[in-house]
Amino acid sequence: MKLEKNKDLIRRWIEFSNTGFLGSFDPFISREYVGHLGATKMDRNELERLERQFSAAFPDTHHTVEDLIAEGDRVVLRTTAHATHRGRFEGIDPTNRSVEFTGLVVYRIQDGKIAESWGEIDFGRLIRELRRA
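^ thats the sequence. predicted structure below, dont judge the formating
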């Protein structure tokens, strides 16, 4: 039962993401959150800043859950995202291009919230799509 609750938390987190993070992170993210994105480490405030910044640049982002696997206190998510570049991102002015990129994230759930995550997002592919001629 706990595994299904953990998976449901991540499903709701993705739904929240698909709204452009409208609202509070409180129901999803622990105050003690630690995130790992490649070599970057972040706290909850930085996660919220980055997610909202990304949503401003790609306001119609939609994540499709490809796989969701739970074991113990971990949930693994494999996702594909589709979005339109409508705001400045990584020094690139809006291109209005439709883009697709993938991600793989391992979440650690504690007390019904995301306490830690390790993510590998294919930002290289995203940047290439934005810069293509």
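The longest strand covers residues 98-110.
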